[in-house]
Amino acid sequence: MTPVHHRSHVDDLLSFIRASPSPYHAVASAAQRLEKAGFRELRGTDDWTGTTGGSFVVRGGALIAWYAPEGTPAHTPFRIIGTHTDSPNLRIKPTPDTGSAGWRQIAVEIYGGVPLNTWLDRDLGISGRLALRGPGGTTDSRLVQIDEPLLRVPQLAIHLDRTVNEGLSLDRQRHIAPVWSLGAAEEGALLRRVAAAAEADPEEVLGWDLMLHDIQPPGYLGAEREFVVSSRLDNLVSVHAGVTALAATATAAQEPAYIPVLAAFDHEEVGSGSDTGAQSPLLERVLSRSVTARGGSPEDWSRALAGAFCLSADMAHAVHPNYAERHDPDHRPLPNSGPTVKVNVNQRYATDSTGIAVFASACERAGAPWQPFVSNNAMPCGTSIGPLTAARLGVPTVDVGVPGLSMHSARELCGADDPGHLAAILGAFVTSG
User: Fold this and answer.
1) CA–CA separation, 60 vs 152, rounded Å?
2) CA 207 – CA 267 distance, rounded (Å)
3) What is the spatial distance between Cα 379 and Cα 382, in angstroms, rounded to a whole number?
4) Which helix (H) or strand (E) holds 222?
5) CATH number of 3-87+231-431
6) Integer Cα distance of 357 and 253 in angstroms
7) Which CATH class is domain 89-214?
8) C-alpha radius of gyration, the chain, whole number
9) At residue 83, what are phi and psi to the nearest 5 degrees?
10) Over the stretch 70-93, which tens digit does the pLDDT of each residue have?
11) Which residues are CB-contacts of 10 (< 8 A; sequence separation ≥ 6)?
12) What gap in Å lies between CA 176 and CA 108, rounded to an integer?
């Protein structure tokens, strides 16, 4: 990509992030872009027989999409891009209305590995989905997004905690109920506010999956605007790049050597142990049905998997200038030097030499740089959906990601060139050997 194309890609990424404050919104944004590229949604209860072209399946905060032109042999192997839609945040409890000392507050639960100090003194909105009562005992789901400064988790003044700069001296998990008004806790107040934003009757709301998000818009940072700063870069950078790469395959004229697949899972930040996570049979069942829909046999399914390969794309750590000793001394990725390939011999990442070769080859075809990453031996290594997907499907997998700072923070940072590099690499990965 040229610098102009990099900037255009990031501008589009920032629009994607603004429209995607929750996993459910991220899936809706991805589905909208795929539909614009000619993909169509399939439901699990539909008859998929004879289905070709671009298709996708939505389940809650997860999306599985693939592209198989008419005439594609049923045994054609898959090239899978693995990502996730969720990010660490604060999620609203089922009984949310609470308060203390004359303040009206809401009760929240910590989701994933949240650096709590980054959520203090930030203007917060509410997003997610409502489960509504439908006709005849059915239920419906409706998205809600309140991009207003509705809530705030206030920092304790330094005059009342002189040790605050020595670390998180207070038990922050006991002091994270955001304030949103004055007065005693009023049962149903939050529900009425959220339902009004979703144009729903509070009496019809049976449940919810609601979370808080920082309403500060994403943007550029740096002397040359060389960085991107935003909430949820982990992992919407990869979801957006995967959607971009998959949508581009629909315009390719030649018959594909592989069936490109995008798997955007939910709940990665808490272990992927749900019906929409990488540990679930969701991807396996969808891909198996896609083979059967094209007239494939169990043998065709086995052949398609045997030739498959997965590239798991998640954010990675750039070397931190203030904590360089926390990183491996010989592996120090920097922003705008290309995505990293993540290696851990204990299989916290699924990368091996074969995976490195596949990734490096895709980088060469895309004309994009890349960097190796390995954790410091003295520091615990994180993980991603790569090992889970490899174990579930039995396909070789490589873990990669755009390097950044402030991972899991309410405001993360990465290089402005790297999202475009990743999209180009993913495009090369799914279309060539």
Assistant:
1) 27
2) 19
3) 9
4) none
5) 3.40.630.10
6) 27
7) mainly beta
8) 22
9) -140, 180
10) 999 999 999 999 999 999 999 999
11) 220, 228, 416, 419, 420
12) 7
**Residue ranges of the chain that CATH labels 3.40.630.10:** 3-87+231-431
What's the confidence (pLDDT) of residue 243? 98
Integer Cα distance of 85 and 403 in angstroms: 18
Hey, what's the torsion of the CAs at 413, 414, 415, 419, to 10 degrees?
A: -140
DSSP 348-365: TS---HHHHHHHHHHHHH
Q: Where in the chain is the domain with CATH 2.30.250.10?
A: 89-214
Contact between 79 and 263 under an 8 Å Cβ cutoff? The reply is no
Are the C-beta atoms of 350 and 397 separated by less than 8 Å? Answer: yes
Residue 271: alpha-carbon gap to chain centroid: 13
Task: Calculate helix-pair angle for 233-249, 418-431, nearest 10 degrees.
Answer: 40
Task: Say whether pTM exceeds 0.85.
Answer: yes
- SS3 label, residue 218: coil
Instruction: Quote the pLDDT of residue 405.
Output: 98
Q: How many CB atoms lie within 10 A of CB 184?
A: 11
Torsion sign across C-alpha atoms 339, 344, 345, 347: negative
Q: What are the residues whose beta carbons fall under 8 Å from the beta carbon of 15, sequence distance 6 or more?
A: none
Order of strands across the sheet with 371-374? 40-41, 53-59, 62-68, 259-265, 78-84, 309-313, 397-401, 340-343, 371-374
Q: Pick out the chain residues at pLDDT < 70.
A: 1-4, 167-174, 252-254, 433
Report how far apart, in Å, the C-alpha atoms of 311 and of each of 131, 234, 238, 391 are. Answer: 34, 16, 11, 14
